[in-house]
């Protein structure tokens, strides 16, 4: 009797290993299998709540997509510190606006009056110098911001492109079935 129980236990563990091996071949790592189970469970629970299939009903599919996105985010690793640091950088803001000249236009000429030839700066020249200074500061901030963001943006773009490419191939492969 005892040997029969042990044999059945051994068989059930062997069957479980066979199932685990098949699941691993089909779905990859334990983490991937767990996320697929969570995605399937969420879809089933949402379908049960709406009484409709996510594949046939837009509202249900919208709820399922929202649930899936939340589940996927929960399984994702933390954002790398080097990416987080770049995202925390202060945006350089908008470029300064060039001041409008304050000198009056002579009638009929359509040209701005020239500054007096006394060597003194007019108000608009002072504003123009301040504008040039602010513009230079802005351009330096923007250059530093863009330089820091480029590798992160390129990294993200590369992975987004890979994801889109693979998803497209999977959609094409599965639509032929």
Tags for this model:
mainly alpha, 2 domains, 5 helices, 71% helix
Question: What does this entry look like structurally?
Answer:
With 177 residues, the chain is mostly helical. The protein folds into two domains: 1-76, no CATH class; 80-106 and 120-177. The protein is built from five helices and no strands. It has helices spanning 2-27, 30-50, 58-75, 81-87, 123-175. α2 packs antiparallel against α3 and α4 crosses α5 (123-175). The radius of gyration is 32 Å and the shape is elongated. The mean pLDDT is 82.
Task: Summarize the entry for a quick read.
By secondary structure, this protein is mostly helical.
Percent range for β-strand residues: under 5%
Mean pLDDT over the full residue set: 82
Q: What distance lies between the first and last C-alpha atoms, to the nearest angstrom?
A: 49 Å
Number of DSSP helices?
A: 5
**Low-pLDDT windows of residues:** none
Shape: elongated
Derived from helix and strand composition plus strand pairing, the structural class reads mainly alpha
The Rg value, from CA coordinates, equals 32 Å
Give me the count of strands: 0
**Helix share bin:** over 70%
Summarize the helix and strand pattern as letters: HHHHH
Number of self-contained structural domains: 2
């Amino acid at each position: 009797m005892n040997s029969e129980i042990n044999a059945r236990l051994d068989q059930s563990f062997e069957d479980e290993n066979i199932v685990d091996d098949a699941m691993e071949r089909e779905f990859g790592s334990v983490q991937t299998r767990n996320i697929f189970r969570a995605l399937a469970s969420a879809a089933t629970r949402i379908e049960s709540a709406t009484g409709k299939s996510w594949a046939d009903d837009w509202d249900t599919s919208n709820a399922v997509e929202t649930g899936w996105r939340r589940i996927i985010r929960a399984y994702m690793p933390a954002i790398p510190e080097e990416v987080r640091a770049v995202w925390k950088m202060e945006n350089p803001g908008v470029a300064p606006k060039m001041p409008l000249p304050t000198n009056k236009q002579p009638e009929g000429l359509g040209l701005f009056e020239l500054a007096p030839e006394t060597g003194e700066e007019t108000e608009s020249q002072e504003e123009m110098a301040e504008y040039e200074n602010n513009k230079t500061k802005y351009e330096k901030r923007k250059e530093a911001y863009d330089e820091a963001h480029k590798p992160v943006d390129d990294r993200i773009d590369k992975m987004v492109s890979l994801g889109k490419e693979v998803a497209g191939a999977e959609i094409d492969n599965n639509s032929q079935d």
